[in-house]
Design brief:
The protein has one domain. The radius of gyration is 23 Å and the shape is extended. The protein starts with 6 loop residues before the first helix and ends with a helix. The protein has a two-stranded antiparallel sheet with strand order 1-2. Strand 1 and strand 2 form a beta hairpin. It is an all-alpha fold. The longest helix is centred in the middle third of the chain and has 21 residues. The chain has 6 helices and 2 strands.
């Protein structure tokens, strides 16, 4: 049933522009995000980069980028000493994997085992440290890439 238009409804305020996200979702109005809002997965970019690794040199570069993220995570305020110690263990494992990958004849099994262990530790840490969520998955992805690149 059609509504009759009155003078009151004819004077409308202009609508804000509609933004369309790449996924095709229309967003309207004033969207305001408060403090401590994380939109999306922080590690999507690193996961995409890991998926595109094709050479041992690219592998080493991506593992070193992960080392930088671990170092930044370790500097976050509010971490307990045990959490910092856990991050140091993971950093040591990642460093071992880089050293092994840079050898003339790297052992895929050693790299994979080291990164898989680091992944498990990061997954356990992510239960208490929100910023660590996703890094365990990245480490596991790197372990699979190492197996593919270095044989095994």
């Amino acid at each position: 049933m059609a509504r009759k238009r009155t003078a009151k409804t004819e004077t409308t305020t202009p609508r804000p522009p509609t933004a369309v996200a790449p996924e095709g979702i229309a967003v309207e109005g004033g969207i305001h995000a408060g403090r401590d809002v994380i939109m999306g997965d922080q590690y999507n970019d690193l996961r995409q980069q890991v998926a595109q690794i094709g050479t041992p040199a690219e592998f080493v570069v991506q593992v070193q980028a992960l080392q930088a993220q671990l170092a930044a995570l370790k500097q976050q305020p509010g971490l307990l000493p045990a959490q910092v110690q856990t991050l140091e263990v993971v950093e040591g494992n990642v460093k071992e994997a880089v050293e092994e990958a840079q050898k003339p004849e790297p052992l895929a099994a050693r790299i994979t085992a080291t990164l898989t262990g680091a992944s498990a530790v990061m997954d356990s840490l992510s239960k208490g440290v929100q910023a660590a969520v996703g890094l365990g998955t990245v480490l596991a992805g790197l372990a699979h890439i190492a197996l593919r690149l270095f044989g095994g």
